[in-house]
């Protein structure tokens, strides 16, 4: 219902209530005037008419009270919903931008990892300065994201959770509990209480079963893990 329609409906209800109230007042005046007009002629008692009028006013009062309570509840719900929307807008407005920046950070990390250790050692001062500059850029970018509520997941050694992790492969290991995260292929991140990007992981297979524990709710779906890993959970 639009605001204009809602206002029109409320106005109609108010006008109807006013009309009924005016009719009730007129009926009351009539009920009290009639005995005086016919006092000398032994006019009949109007108590029954007054009782009907009182019942009508009580019903009208109950109806108005019910409408007031409903309106108050609607306004309270609207206030809380607005507060939640404003909070979410502040917390998650940069989610898409942050996700894109993570892709840039990934590329910086890949570039650094692609440099052989011996090349770092044998490189001249200019090359070393370039590498240090890329490392500083990566750190500054991740630090800026952290200041805006983006946090890195640390799933290694934890039980696989499809709300936060995406299983890419399985690692046979009879000594590690089944579905334990053993390797992180790509870091995952959250923003506030929502998953910004799931961690891509490798999970253990062939070890003892882990007890099933309640899984926390995530604010975004990271994507389905591999079928075999999910079946072994």
From TrEMBL:
An example Pfam family from this entry, by short name, is GrpE
Q: What is its main location?
A: cytoplasm
Which parts form a coiled-coil structure per UniProt? Answer: 54-81
Specify residue ranges for compositional bias: Basic and acidic residues. 1-26, 33-42
Q: Which GO terms describe its cellular component?
A: cytoplasm
**Where does this one sit in the cell?**
Cytoplasm
Entry-linked Gene3D superfamilies: 3.90.20.20, Head domain of nucleotide exchange factor GrpE (2.30.22.10)
Mention one GO molecular function.
unfolded protein binding
Map out region (Disordered) in residue numbers: 1-47, 203-233
UniProt keyword Chaperone, yes or no = yes
Q: Which UniProt keywords apply?
A: Chaperone, Coiled coil, Cytoplasm, Stress response
Annotated GO biological processes are:
protein folding
Name the protein family. Belongs to the GrpE family.
In its UniProt entry, what is this protein called? Protein GrpE
Biological source species: Georhizobium profundi
Organism ancestry = Bacteria, Pseudomonadati, Pseudomonadota, Alphaproteobacteria, Hyphomicrobiales
């Amino acid at each position: 219902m639009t605001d204009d329609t809602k206002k029109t409906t409320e106005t109609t209800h108010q006008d109807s209530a006013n009309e009924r109230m005016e009719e009730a007042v007129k009926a009351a005046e009539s009920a009290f005037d009639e005995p005086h007009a016919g006092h000398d002629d032994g006019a009949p008692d109007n108590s029954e008419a007054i009782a009907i009028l009182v019942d009508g006013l009580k019903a009208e009062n109950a109806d108005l009270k019910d409408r007031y309570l409903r309106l108050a509840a609607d306004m309270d719900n609207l206030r809380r919903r607005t507060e939640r929307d404003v909070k979410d807008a502040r917390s998650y407005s940069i989610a898409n931008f942050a996700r894109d920046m993570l892709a840039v950070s990934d590329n910086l990390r890949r570039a650094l990892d692609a440099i052989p250790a011996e090349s770092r050692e044998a490189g001249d001062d200019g090359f070393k300065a370039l590498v240090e500059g890329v490392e500083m850029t990566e750190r500054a970018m991740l630090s800026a994201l952290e200041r805006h509520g983006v946090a890195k997941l640390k799933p290694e050694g934890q039980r696989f959770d499809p709300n936060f992790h995406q299983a890419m492969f399985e690692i046979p290991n009879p000594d590690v509990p089944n579905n334990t995260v053993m390797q992180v292929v790509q870091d995952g991140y959250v923003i506030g209480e929502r998953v910004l990007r799931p961690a891509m992981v490798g999970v253990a297979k062939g070890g003892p079963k882990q007890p099933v524990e309640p899984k926390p709710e995530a604010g975004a779906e990271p994507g389905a893990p591999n079928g075999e890993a999910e079946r072994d959970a």
